[in-house]
Design brief:
The structure holds two protein chains of two kinds.
Chain A lengths: L2 H12 L9 H15 L7 H36 L2 H6 L4 H30 L3 H28 L3 H19 L8 H13 L10 H24 L9
Helix pairs in contact in A: 1-3, 1-5, 2-3, 2-5, 3-5, 3-6, 3-7, 3-8, 5-6, 5-9, 6-7, 6-8, 6-9, 8-9
Chain B lengths: L20 H17 L6 H27 L7 H7 L1 H21 L2 H6 L5 H34 L3 H34 L5 H25 L3 H5 L5 H13 L12 H24 L4
Helix pairs in contact in B: 1-6, 2-4, 2-6, 3-7, 3-10, 4-6, 4-7, 4-8, 6-7, 6-11, 7-8, 7-10, 7-11, 10-11
Classes of the chains: A mainly alpha, B mainly alpha.
Keywords (chain B): Membrane, Transmembrane, Transmembrane helix
Protein name (chain B): Membrane protein
Keywords (chain A): Membrane, Transmembrane, Transmembrane helix
């Protein structure tokens, strides 16, 4: 890993106004958790609103969306701007470039998702769930970041492809075809959070072993594919 | 020595022919944007996603025709297509809207457009119209596929075909409402950023983030607040309009007697979104 690349990537991701884009999501999450806790009574239980807030909002929207924006812009911005040329002319192993980019993307995504999710879990009154959310979000962030980083090297339109994966695969297909959840990172994160948290606030039907193995497979394959693709990366004229 | 600042006439030719004017520019931009939305006239990679989504929607419509023809009553009618495909249409808008406006901002192509007779507000309105038309096609083509399938499969002769035609027209009307709202929301958001990454992220953020909010509010309060919660989320809002205007039975949540409110909010959002797009381009440097 290369500290210079990491520092420059972190600055490109966080240095400008665009970091504010990540702010509304935690606010909505924590606001809805407060609302859910406040309106709990004999009709509305934690099992009613919990899965909606932590599952459908936290792990299904906030985690993948943050990872998509961060993961695909870690290297994607350099390709867009053409500064990738400078990076590629340096005598650095391609794996080192990818690993540095991936580490920064992973740390930023984890910080932007695990912290609000843990705070929301604490508000909901479950310390175990807070730990589960941090672990689930960290593992999910790693797998998502590797996937979207690989997409940004392989495709000219990584965000569009990533979006199709998130919306059509993880949200639409998984609700119809049950087996597809094995290949859905959101389900891996949910399984880990459920196993550690053990509350009615989240529900998951995947075993922990499957989740860990599949998330590791996503992360490894993503990193490997990105490295391989970057080795034979061709600078083309069409910028848009 | 000649005086400074004098341009000598060395035989410049004047153009005396007809000038095509702003209307022509707007029409050309509209056609160009509509083609660009589906990647026509661009690289094959630009076609994959929009055409792929359209193809998926058409295949889904074909499957529905087969399912409908096997069952006594159709499971999903034409308005149902508009309702259920809204989710895919939001992805389409999030992918296509940045293609239409962000690239112009980033490559400074916008300044070239504005140096023509085309006015700023005409540019914005044309782009909204092109996006709305492209989204409309995403609904309309699967409906046509369904109509052709159902018209051939009808067993009540020409009367059955006319029944299907009536349903198709109703469905197309619903598609117009859906396309107008999605375009009026997506385009101004896309025009905020010259980077497709962030433009797409912001649009899908608005669509994806609002859906669980209204679902949670609906869960927490079964009363009036729950019935009005659908207003917060474009997908539920359009679903409510379908339920109210076209009697669609695929409801995401109860709208009780608030149908007119859903209709009014939809109209207001379309107007507001379009106005925002025009306003966004008013102050832009040229």
């Amino acid at each position: 890993m290369n500290p210079t690349i990491m520092r420059l990537t972190a600055r490109a991701l966080l240095g400008r106004r665009r970091v504010l884009l990540l702010l509304p999501m935690p606010i909505v999450l924590i606001g809805l958790t407060l609302l859910g806790v406040a309106s709990e009574d004999e009709y509305v239980t934690a099992g009613d609103w919990g899965p909606l807030v932590f599952g459908n909002l936290g792990l299904a929207v906030i985690l993948p969306l943050t990872a998509l924006i961060v993961g695909s812009s870690a290297l994607g911005l350099e390709i867009d701007d053409g500064t990738i040329t400078h990076l590629l002319t340096k005598p650095l192993p391609r794996g080192e470039i990818i690993l540095s980019k991936l580490t920064v993307a992973w740390l930023v995504t984890t910080a932007a998702t695990a912290v609000p999710l843990a705070v929301a879990a604490l508000i909901a009154g479950s310390g175990a769930l807070a730990v589960g959310m941090v672990v689930g979000a960290a593992v999910g962030s790693l797998a998502y970041s590797a996937l979207f980083l690989a997409l940004s090297v392989m495709s000219k339109r990584p965000v569009a492809v990533g979006l199709v994966y998130i919306v059509l695969w993880e949200n639409l297909l998984v609700s119809f075809v049950d087996g597809a959840r094995v290949f859905s990172i959101r389900q891996h994160a949910g399984a880990l959070a459920d196993a550690i948290g053990d509350t009615p606030l989240v529900d998951s039907s995947l075993t922990v072993l499957t989740a860990v193995l599949m998330a590791a497979a996503f992360a490894t394959l993503g990193t490997y594919a990105a490295t391989r693709r970057l080795r034979s990366f061709a600078l083309t004229g069409e910028a848009n | 020595m000649s005086e400074p600042g004098v341009i000598h006439d060395i035989g410049y030719q004047r153009y005396a022919g007809p000038r095509l004017g702003p209307g022509y520019s707007a029409r050309s931009l509209y056609v160009h944007s509509l083609r660009g939305a589906y990647g026509l006239g661009r690289s094959p990679w630009a076609k994959v996603l929009p055409i792929g989504l359209l193809g998926l929607a058409s295949i889904a419509a074909l499957i529905l025709v087969i399912v409908n023809s096997q069952l006594p009553a159709p499971v999903i009618d034409y308005v149902g297509i508009a309702s259920t495909f809204t989710f895919a249409a939001t992805v389409f808008v999030a992918v296509v809207a940045p293609e239409l406006v962000s690239v112009d901002l980033r490559t400074k192509l916008l300044q070239l457009y504005l140096s023509r007779p085309l006015s700023r507000s005409a540019y914005a309105l044309t782009k909204v119209a092109a996006l709305a038309t492209a989204t409309f096609l995403l609904f309309a083509i699967p409906m046509l596929v369904m109509f052709i399938g159902m018209a051939f499969g009808t067993d009540t002769g020409i009367g059955g075909v006319f029944d299907e035609l009536g349903g198709l027209l109703l469905g197309l009307l619903a598609a117009v409402v859906h396309a107008a709202l999605l375009a009026a929301l997506g385009l101004p958001i896309a025009s905020l950023s010259g980077r497709r990454v962030f433009a797409t992220g912001m649009i899908i953020g608005v669509f994806l983030l609002t859906a669980p909010i209204s679902a949670i509010l609906r869960e927490l309060d079964p009363g009036a607040l729950g019935a009005l919660a659908g207003l917060l989320d474009p997908t539920s809002l359009l679903n409510g309009v379908d339920t109210w205007l076209f009697g669609s039975d695929i409801a995401l949540g109860a709208i009780d007697g608030y149908g007119p409110v859903y209709g009014a909010v939809t109209l207001a959002l379309i107007a507001l979104g379009t106005a925002c797009a025009v306003w966004r381009y008013r102050g832009i440097d040229s």
